[in-house]
Design a protein that fits this description.
about 500 residues; alpha+beta; four-stranded antiparallel beta sheet; 16 helices; flat
Length: about 500
């Protein structure tokens, strides 16, 4: 993207670039897309990757958020009318999922985590469709602008952030560049690929955005501050561990200068700068009248340090939709109601992100595979063949007993339904009923076989289906009484 005005130096300002631009007269993006982050998007991506690599705070937030978002992975559910076709589609896609990407190093479930992490840290990721049905993934920094050679030959059209646009602003292609031998993106070898051959997954903040921005970018300043505060406290603690007393002496500067040594590696002026004193065990101080020794207070870290860090972490986690308790994995200072309220807001936030991931990543990947299979004649070409759903892992409950009792009470009084309850657990009702039907049938079959092998045992099938069983044993009437009861019934 091209800019007018005082943009020089913005590439070194990181996340401050957006604010600087607002305060810099004469600086504005050409075209008015309003993508403030585009001024320094490359630096922001680098900073996000560096923080994820080096910062325990950044890595904890990203990994916790990814774990909540993905969990054990999304499960494909075919909604075809034919149960046999549903089973075939699900089994075939599961087989394809194990080797669906071109490098052969990641399964579909592995790439779910990679894609979710890329959206949080880098903002977008792209998958290029190959003729053999596999996908080649390109990192955010590989989606680059047109090469100089393409511009000279006038092969590049309206391009914003590596995305070619038509007159309506819709993407028509993406400029993708490979990594070179040194691991650096080779822009000179960038090639334009049609949009129909690409699956672009991104966090688009605005309607006019062409590139995604990492969800955690607003938290970068806070993460830097937390790291700085922790470093300062650690350094102060280290200093105090080596210094026990403060000495007050007459003409202290002159005495200290004579008792210290100059740092040999530096050319220092004739003053105290760069001088030091080092002792193996300690020193003996011979005091005069008016001189004294005072012990240094060791009250570090300060009393407010833990709470300050907790508040900083709470603010940093807000961007990712994570409460402090989840970031620290510590619920000791909160009660059930507060924890439940915080987790409900978190899960609601991640339900929205799951819906976005299903629409922009899961469904396009599945559709690309399914269309090829239909074209090859593996499945019938009809609407119900393409109908499907993605079921994510259910979110964990704070107290499973209380949650299940409350859900059962709502269903019993008629203010909720079983469908609502299952939907809150990210479960499909049709699939659930099918699973329960199979479990009940299997349980009945097991009980019947046991009763046949052991006459009079009267094994209740419900115990195998996880259903409550009556505590009172079923009384078995003698054969004579049964015949008498049947005779009385016939007379009546």
């Amino acid at each position: 993207m091209r800019y007018r005005g005082g943009t020089r130096g913005f590439d070194a300002l990181g996340y401050h670039s957006a604010d600087v631009m607002r305060r810099s007269p004469g600086s504005y993006p050409l075209g008015g897309s309003g993508d403030r982050y585009q001024i320094d998007r490359g630096e922001l991506v680098k900073e996000g990757l560096r923080l994820y690599r080096d910062s325990v705070i950044m890595r904890s937030i990203v990994d916790r958020a990814t774990d909540i978002l993905i969990g054990t992975g999304f499960k494909l559910e075919s909604l075809s009318k034919s149960s046999r076709l549903r089973r075939r589609i699900e089994e075939d896609f599961a087989e394809y999922s194990e080797s669906f990407e071109s490098r052969g190093q990641f399964s579909f479930a592995d790439m779910e985590v990679q894609v979710a992490r890329s959206l949080m840290v880098q903002g977008d990721i792209l998958a290029l469709k190959h003729k053999d049905g596999r996908l080649q993934f390109f990192e955010s920094e590989q989606i680059t602008h047109a090469s100089a050679n393409a511009v000279r030959k006038k092969k590049a059209g309206i391009s914003v952030g590596g995305v070619e646009l038509d007159s309506y602003g819709a993407p028509t292609g993406y400029w993708l560049a490979p990594y070179g031998n040194s691991g650096i993106v080779e822009i000179r070898n960038a090639k334009l690929h049609p949009a129909k051959d690409c699956i672009f997954v991104a966090n688009l903040e605005r309607y006019s955005s062409t590139r995604g921005t990492g969800r955690l970018i607003p938290a970068y300043p806070m993460i830097h501050r937390i790291s700085s505060v922790c470093d300062s406290e650690a350094i102060a603690w280290q200093l105090l561990s080596k210094v026990s007393f403060a000495i007050t002496r007459e003409q202290g500067s002159a005495v200290a200068y004579s008792e210290s040594e100059a740092e040999s590696s530096a050319d220092q002026p004739p003053d105290m700068a760069g001088r030091f004193s080092e002792y193996d065990e300690g020193l003996v101080f011979h005091g005069k009248d008016g001189e004294g020794v005072a012990a240094i207070s060791r009250e570090l870290p300060g009393a407010s340090f833990p709470e300050s860090v907790r508040m900083f972490l709470r603010l940093a986690g807000m961007v990712a939709g994570l409460p402090l308790e989840v970031i620290l994995a510590d619920f000791a200072k909160t009660n059930y109601s507060a924890s439940r309220a915080a987790l409900e807001q978190t899960f609601r936030c991640y339900l929205t992100q799951q819906r976005h991931l299903k629409r922009t990543y899961h469904t396009p990947v599945f559709t690309n595979w399914l269309d090829r299979r239909i074209a090859a004649g593996a499945y019938p070409d009809r609407p119900d063949t393409r109908r499907h759903n993605w079921t994510a892992q259910e979110f964990p409950w704070v107290d499973q007993l209380k949650e299940s009792q409350a859900m059962a009470s709502r269903i019993q009084v008629g203010i909720s339904s079983q469908s609502d309850a299952l939907r809150s657990l990210n479960k499909d009702r049709e699939l659930f009923l099918e699973q329960r039907r199979k479990e009940v049938e299997d349980s009945i079959a097991v009980a019947e076989k046991l009763n046949a092998d052991h006459p009079g045992a009267n094994v209740d099938w419900r115990m195998f289906a996880g259903m409550p069983v009556s505590k009172q044993p079923v009384e078995v009437e003698p054969e004579a009484k049964q015949e008498e009861a049947q005779a009385n019934d016939s007379q009546v």
